[in-house]
Every structure is written in structure tokens, then in C-alpha cells.
Amino acid sequence: MKFKRLFLILWAVFTALMVLMIQGGVTSLEAFSPDNRTELSGGSAATVSKATKTAFAQPIKNLDRKRRRVFVFGDHLFNTQWVQAPSSVATLDGLGPLFNRNSCAGCHVRDGRGRPPLPHEDRMLSKLIRLSIPGQTEEGGPLPHPLYGGQLQEQGILGVPSEGRTQVSWEEEPGTFADGKPFSVRQPSYRFTDLAYGPLGDEVLFSPRVAPAVFGLGLLETVPQADIVKQADPEDRDGDGISGRPNYVWDFVKKDKQLGILGWKANQPNLKQQIAGAFNGDIGLTTSLFPKPSCNEGQPDCLKEIKFGEQPEVSDEFLDKITTYMSLLAVPARRNIEGVAEKRGEKLFYQAQCASCHTPKMVTGKTSEHSEFNNQVIHPYTDLLLHDMGAGLADNRPDFEAEGQEWRTPPLWGVGLVKNVNKHTFFLHDGRARDLMEAVLWHGGEAQASKEAVLQLSETERTELIAFLQSL
Prior knowledge:
27% of the residues lie in helices and 15% in strands. With 472 residues, it is α+β, with helices and mostly antiparallel strands. The protein is globular.
């Protein structure tokens, strides 16, 4: 009897605490902390107070002369429009033969986000289609399509037919907030035309992806992997409905599987490999990491052209410099942190448990070659883990250990400046969301409860939630 009585008392205390927490507006496991309300999103050394169209293109503070020179040259490489080989400048040729864009900046405009094509545009400008078929490579990655490889390259150099075109159409799906206000989200569908090398076939798996913003990646690389993995809860043992899984992907230097931290599916272990992969797939340039050209069997004109130019087409020196450039891109400061609407919206963000995946705070480690990145408290609003986002956002295409419904939690820092930098407000991995609220309304799977919480908000509260997000 004594044990039963004690149990009932403890249960009553627990229930009372939960009620108090809910009434206080804090239900998330990631408890609200005033310490997270700071302008220093990228820590003390890597935060810049710039909110203009160049907000994502700024170097970290107090760069020494040597690294500033590298940064400037890396910026030049980032904006270089590569040309077909042979050319008068052998170090900057080798474009294609098949490619999506001829420069990094062509997709990552001003180091920012890409977008889907607009109605008057007949091709993808800063978005691409990943391709594969069922199965895995020896390294455990997606098995490339036998005719088209790992992605559909919509451009070719003179004499080499492009692989095809992507047509995107949209269908509106109506919904209603709890207060009766209607909304609509748009569902994309894809059609592939002008396929020059044969049909894609019934087995094809494809994943549309816009170019993500590229600032702050040097900081994310410095977060200790043990701290990232520590947040994972793949079996949801705490019963909060949020799992979070690490993706382990192939490291082409270490010849082993490593924790994936970058990319829409956390399918890259580090920035250098991500850049080399983009050079190869997006621009058609070889590096020492990816020395094979992006031509496939059955593409004779492409294979005929690869004999021109020096190999690798991007030297190790250039690859290192552009990696340094992107590592040193600073994070824009958070704004309006004392605004009334922003502060209320921040509280709603925690109440809806958005902070369970969009983790506000991380602490970097001590291993970066850039000393400014070490021991920094940063606020990226990501846990860098994979989460099931539901059938609505699924691409149904596995990527290493990421399943078809899983996506890495994207960082939210700088999200309020996309309009200033990139002149659009298209969000999510494929740019389907036309604004931040539409992005929230696409959340499903592990984030379904958060979406349901937002649906219950009043119009004023929804405005406050968006005000908070725009302050990041």
C-alpha cells in the first residue's frame, strides 16, 4: 500500500509539472533558453552584421593577409565561368562535356539558395535532378542510372547533346487553419523530355534538389561528430515522436564510411568532397577525388571530347583554395532579437517542438585549422541528423543510409535573408514552398505534431512565428 501511495504522489507531481510546463509555453525537449536569443549566430568570430544582397558572401572577421588572399582567389574560382577545352587558359577549362551550369555561382547565386524554374523559364537554372536505380554502389551510395549516371545534365558543350530537359508542373492542395483561414500548398510533378540517350525506364529513381546556401559550412564541419550522434534517437526511446538518425556515407579520401553532415540528405562527410562532387556532377570537371568524367556508356560524343584538357581539370591547389573560401564564409547575424513579435514567435517555435530537430545551439570542437572556429557557441538551428518528413516530401530514393522519406534538418540561420540575397522565398529541398509558412505546412512524419500545433495557432501567432524565423 505504501508503494502504491508513493507512486500516486509521484505521478501527481509529474502531471502537475507537465501542466505548468505547457502553461508556461515550454513543451519541447529542447527547452527555451534566453542564451539562444543572440545576434551571434556564427559565434563571436564568424558572425557578420550584413543584411544586404551580399549577406551570405562575407568572410569571417579579422582574416590575416594570407588567408584573405586565398579567400579572394577562392571567390574568383567560385564565380569563374568554366569553358570548353582546349582554351587559351588551360587551368580554367574542361567544362562538361555534359553539365548543368558552368560556374558554382550559377546555382549558388551570391552564395545563397537556388530555386525551381519560374513559369517563363524553360530549363532548370539552380535546381537539378539526381538519378539512380535500385541497388547500391560498392561504397554504399545510390546506384547511378546506366544511361544517364547520377544526375540529369541538361546542357552539353558544342557537339555533345544534352541529356534531356525537366518540365515541372504544380497542383494546388487546399487546407484550412483551425481559425478557418484557408491556405494552399503546391505539389510538384515532373516530366522528362528530349531524352537524348534513351528512355529512363521504369526503375528510375529521381530526386529534385535546389542548390542550398553555402555559408557557415566551415563551422558545421567543426562540430564534434560525437555531439551530433549523441542527439540521435533512432528507436525513439524517449517516446517524443522524434527519432533522428545519422547518415554514414563514403569518404573518398579515408576510403571508409564517415558521418554525413552536409547535403540535403547528409550525403557528404566534408566540404571538400561536397565541392569536388559538385564540380564533377554539376560542371563536368574532374578532380583528384573524382577523376572520371561524367560521361556514361552509350554517350559516344561525350566520351570523344574528354581527351581534351589537362587532368584533373581542377587542380588540387584550386580545390583547396575554393574549399578554404567556402569554409571562411561567415554567418549573418540574427536581427530584431528584442522585437515583441519575434520573441513571441520564438516561444511558439519551442512550443510546437520545432526546436527538437532545428536545434538552436551547437558548440564547435577544437580541431579546425581556422582557430576562430574552435570552441564557438553557434546557433544554426539544425541537428544535422536525418528525420522522416512524411510521404508528402518523400523522394523515395535511398541515399547511403538515408531512406526515401528522410531528409537532414536544414540549418535555419540566415533563412530570413534569402529574399534580400536571392530575390525569392522558395524553400525546402526542391523549392516547392513559396514562403516560410508553406514550408512549415509541408512538414509530416516526425514533424507532423509540430505542423498540427501550427495549424492551431491564431493568425497573430502565425505572424509572430514567421517574424521569429525571419529574424534568424
